[in-house]
Amino acid sequence: MLRALGPALAGLYDEVPTVVLGPVSRGSLVGALTAAAVGVGFVEMRRDAWPATDSDRWVMCTTGPDYRDRHVVFGFRRDLIQGGDRVLLVDDWVDTGATALAGRALVEACGARWIGAACIVDGLTEPRLRHELPVRALLDVRRL
User: What is the dihedral of CA 128, 10, 89, 29, to 10 degrees?
Assistant: First the structure.
């Protein structure tokens, strides 16, 4: 079953990414599985990691309120996503869409093209984000 998860998430979109982006922590697991299934690179979107941890340039973004009403700072090294990349964010669950919106902002700050957010469970509380981001999921929380 775990072996099928990466191809299933990648298959939610017709467009093939050149990079998969996965937020810490479960997004890192399912994102890496998806990147391996497609045969592309993987970038971990780190939470509260500051550029001072190394000398490389970083892109960073603060989320709107998440499912716990927190504002989280996400980021990654700037050189990991290039201007010509097509980026797919992969996560286990989407609830408020705050993490996906931050991911899209980071991708756009790198000059890359955002494909969308693929997740295992769609629990979006704001339906317009399903189309705006776009979000596609294997399961809908309303059917669980």
Answer: 130
